Hints:
Elements: E1 2-3, H1 13-27, H2 36-55, H3 61-70, H4 72-75, E2 84-89, H5 98-105, H6 108-111, E3 114-117, H7 123-132, E4 137-138, H8 141-149, E5 154-161, E6 167-170, E7 184-187, H9 193-204, E8 214-217, H10 221-230, E9 235-238, H11 242-248, E10 252-256, E11 265-271, H12 272-277, H13 279-298, H14 300-310, H15 315-325, H16 337-350, H17 366-376
Parallel strand pairs: 2-3, 2-4, 7-8, 7-9
Antiparallel strand pairs: 1-3, 5-11, 6-9, 6-10
Amino acid sequence: MRFGIQFHPLPTAPEIAAYAKRAMSQAHVGTSVTNPFYRTLIDLALSAGRMLMRRVRALSVVACVALVLSFTPLLWPGLSCGAERVSLALPAKSMGYLPLFVAMHRGFIKDEGIEIEIPMMLPNIAHNALFSGQIDYHGVADSALRLAARGAPSKAIFFGAIRPNYFLMAKPQIKSVVELKGKNIGVARFGDTVELATRVALGREGLDPQRDAVTIMIGFPTTRVAALTAGSIDATIVVPPDNVLLRQKGFRELLFLGDAIEFPSNGFATTDRQLNVRGDQVKRLLRALYRGLIFAKERPDDTIQIIEREWKVELLVARESYASLSKSFSKDGAASEAGLRIHTQQIQKADRDIGDIPLSKIVDFRPLEEIRREWAK
């Protein structure tokens, strides 16, 4: 999937001068020039040429064309260079990444001179691709935090949500979290944020996640939804629009996990090298994401239309999905220290030898802070 304008290389001044000469000679015999870019340059060159030649006879047509070219960046700012290709991998086309899709639909990414491609990758594949340079960014910041805490040269740079966009859905006959005791609950992977949220939800209702329920690793959200629909499991964590669609089918929404725990989710990460060497690109991408986030928060009706088109859902589903997502919108793309500490505590529980984890080791919000300051002016 690619969004943004793909520009062809701008011709050199000698090439345009030669083309202008040929076009001028063709104009005397009635031959048309169809390329609009060249046609515009030629028209301007001819006009400038006639004016200047009346005053300075020695000025050549080539000089006139060069004069026009000197004004090209002012007349066509977007044509001064080609769009820069950027690859950003996602684990799934989730509505949790709504600011990104809003930025694409509204042209915010194109405004930054970026042509973006979005491959779908499992988290471990995305990490390998990021460190090998096959992609520039990815949307699995939660696991990137764990890798960075262990010394990997990467940082989380933006979060679209301040709390997990997770909803605990169960079979119709299950009416409360307590009734999940002894039931099968589907999770994506052991140790990820979905399992963390599941354990928190169970613990909040007085259940022991280790003894009172059976967690089954299933994987992708679509697979978990299919397993619940088929009756293979009793409950699972889903994200919009799956919670809305399951409710329509009679399944029970037991809990919005954001009410039980607050930690940032749906984040983007990149490498330290990208931050240091291509800081301008990082900032341009973040600016587009920031604009997408603000637009999604301030213009719900327009954003609902984007959801409807991008995920090909009915208007009612789009509207209810937006209502679910809006519970978790980040204020400005950053994450609170308290929310990040939830992640670091889980990392330390999994690896007791890791020691203290400074937040500066796992996140870098400095480019985002610069953008917020610029936006406030």
